[in-house]
Each structure stands twice: as structure tokens, then as C-alpha cells.
Design a protein that fits this description.
It is a single chain. By secondary structure, this protein is mainly beta. It is 11% helix and 28% strand. It has six helices and 16 strands. Strands 11, 12, 13, 14, 15 and 16 form a six-stranded antiparallel beta sheet that branches. A five-stranded mixed beta sheet has the order 4-1-2-3-5. Keywords: Signal. One of its GO terms (molecular function) is metal ion binding. Pfam families: Pur_ac_phosph_N.
């Protein structure tokens, strides 16, 4: 996605929002969604409080989500009805940041608290040998959205994985009620070397091969002990997307279960609408960030006696994604 997505004036956006009456969260559509205008590039998150928060730039968005697959396009009238009240900060633990007017490198903690990583040796222990490739420049104009916390003097002062796990959503990070919060799909960035498959030995299970992850590719939700942290960029890079096969649908009057398989562990997502997706005015989606090879997602609140168009989408741990061909199913009468 090109960076023009995030062009625009924060001051103008906030001024526009101030003229819009604030409505109750229960009346606000698109809660838990990332939204944009059809002719605009700025992305917003509609939080469980029924209010809108802007992503100041692509780097901050990418600290929460690995791609733009779930962005919903809404009308100008819908956008204007959702009050804009603030901006979104970096997700804690994912990357390091520095302010353009300050040479210090900071780790991010909950609620936008910046903690100075005092030495390169500490940064290396926290984020690997390639830690310098994981440093984002924070514009001075956005620095006021953050506060400074305690310095990091020792590795035990900061656990990046704990920080990530403590902020699974924008709501959790801001101390809002959870409601229909959208779960983030990133984890701490790190370099991970490719691992060869190991054949089973007596009394031990076989270990499958795992692809390399570059220093800048933040892996999807997987615990730290599932992969081995590498000391430098790996010698091979996985650039092959998963292969989708065996797509099936099982329907009831108001629900449908979509299943498929992939040849490697990948995420799951289904997009669907009541007309061909390329021409649809409104597209719904369901997703699951877990990396699996057998995928199954259930669509709910469907209309009986209706034909639906859908496509499945999967992304592997290296960020390679693929979309299955568009298919249809019809719900039976009640």
C-alpha cells in the first residue's frame, strides 16, 4: 500500500470533527473496524467508545496490522457521523522508535509511554543484532501524543513480548472498554533464520521446516518460543505464497461455514457479499489470525434464500498472501 494513504492535515481533520455532534457508541456503525473514504487515503479506527481515531502514518498502522486486507470503505456521511477525537500511538513492544530531533532510541510501553533504551547492547539483547532496522522515526509533531517513562537500564526492565500481549487492541492500550475491539495481528519484530525439517527419532516427534522472517517483517500472532531468534538476516527468504485448495461451503438458512486447505500454515479470512465482490457496495469479512493448514470460518446473520459471493484469503508467517477464486453459495429458505 503506498504511503499516500496517510496524507492529510491532522489539524483540519480534528477541526472538522469538532463540528459533528457526538453520538452514543451503541448507535455508531463500524465499531471495531478500520475505515477510509473512497477518495481519501487516511485510515481511522472506530473504537468501542463509538469514536474515531486516526492512524498518523503507515508505520503506526503497520505496528498494529500486517496488511490492509480488513480496511472498510465508508461514505462521507458515515465518516462525518463518527466523531474524531484523537490519534493512535504505536503498538507497544513491536518496534523501536526515535524522535527526529532526539538521537535517543525508545521502546514503547502501554498508553504511549516512551522508555529510553540506554545502550546499543541493550537494544541488541531486546531486538536482535538487526535492531537498528527496527527503528521508526517519529515526527516531532506527533511527540506530544507520548509521555516519557523510566529508562531501560537492564534487559530485565523491559519485556517486549509482554508489552505486545498486554495491548491486543487499541481499546486495551487506551484503557477503553473492550466491546467489539479489533484484535491486532502483529508481534515483536525480529530476525528469524530458516530452519530445516528434522526427521522423527525414537521417542521424539519430527520438527517441520519453518521459513525465514526478515528483520523488518513482524510475524503474526505466535508465541516467542515457536521460533528461533536469529542473529542476522537469514540466508534464504520465503517469497512463496500459500496454495489454496479444497474450498467448500456448508449452509443453513442464516449461517454458512467456509472451509479450505493450504499447503503451509497460514491465516484465514473470508470476504463475502450479496453481489460479485468487485462490484459490491458493501463487503463483510470474518478472519482468524492463527496459522493453520486446515481452515474453517463461519459466517453468521445471513439472509435466508439468498445467493452470496465469497473469496478466501490466507497469509503465511512471512507475509506472503494469496486469494482463492470467487465462488458462491445459496442459503436455503427458513
Amino acid at each position: 500500500m503506498v504511503r499516500k494513504l496517510f496524507l492529510g492535515s491532522m489539524a483540519a481533520l480534528l477541526a472538522l470533527s469538532a463540528a459533528v455532534p457526538i453520538s452514543f457508541a451503541a448507535e455508531t456503525p463500524h465499531i471495531g473496524s478500520v475505515v477510509k473514504l473512497a477518495d481519501g487515503g487516511t485510515l481511522y479506527y472506530v473504537a468501542s467508545d463509538g469514536k474515531r481515531y486516526v492512524y498518523p502514518n503507515e508505520q503506526i498502522y503497520k505496528s498494529w496490522f500486517t496488511d490492509f486486507a480488513d480496511v472498510t470503505t465508508i461514505t462521507a456521511e458515515e465518516m462525518a457521523a463518527i466523531p474524531l477525537v484523537g490519534s493512535i500511538r504505536y503498538r507497544p513492544g513491536v518496534v523501536l522508535i526515535k524522535v527526529q530531533t532526539d538521537p535517543r532510541v525508545y521502546a514503547v510501553s502501554k498508553n504511549g509511554k516512551l522508555r529510553w533504551v540506554k545502550t546499543e547492547a541493550l537494544a541488541r539483547r531486546l531486538y536482535g543484532e538487526n535492531w537498528s532496522k527496527l527503528v521508526d522515526d517519529l515526527g516531532a509533531s506527533f511527540f506530544s501524543n507520548y509521555t516519557t517513562g523510566d529508562d531501560i537500564d537492564d534487559e530485565s526492565d523491559y519485556d517486549a513480548d509482554e508489552e505486545v500481549n498486554a495491548a491486543p487492541s487499541v481499546e486495551k492500550n487506551r484503557g477503553l472498554k473492550l466491546g467489539h475491539a479489533k484484535r491486532a495481528t502483529t508481534a515483536r519484530c525480529r530476525a528469524v533464520k530458516a530452519k530445516r525439517a528434522v526427521a522423527a527419532k525414537r521417542g521424539e516427534r519430527a520438527t517441520p521446516a519453518t521459513p525465514a522472517i526478515s528483520a523488518r517483517a513482524c510475524k503474526l500472532n505466535r508465541s516467542a518460543d515457536e521460533v528461533e531468534e536469529g542473529s542476522d538476516e537469514s540466508e534464504t527468504t520465503d517469497s512463496t505464497a500459500p496454495v489454496i485448495s479444497a474450498i467448500t461451503s456448508s449452509t443453513a438458512s442464516t449461517t454458512a461455514t467456509i472451509s479450505w486447505t493450504t499447503n503451509e500454515a497460514s491465516t484465514s479470512k473470508v470476504k463475502y457479499a450479496t453481489e460479485p465482490l468487485a462490484a459490491a457496495d458493501s463487503i463483510e469479512s470474518v478472519s482468524d489470525p492463527d496459522l493453520v493448514t486446515s481452515h474453517s470460518l463461519t459466517l453468521t446473520d445471513l439472509t435466508a434464500s439468498t445467493t452470496y459471493y465469497f473469496s478466501v484469503w490466507s497469509q503465511d508467517g512471512s507475509g506472503n498472501a494469496t486469494t482463492g477464486s470467487e465462488q458462491t453459495f445459496s442459503t436455503p429458505a427458513q
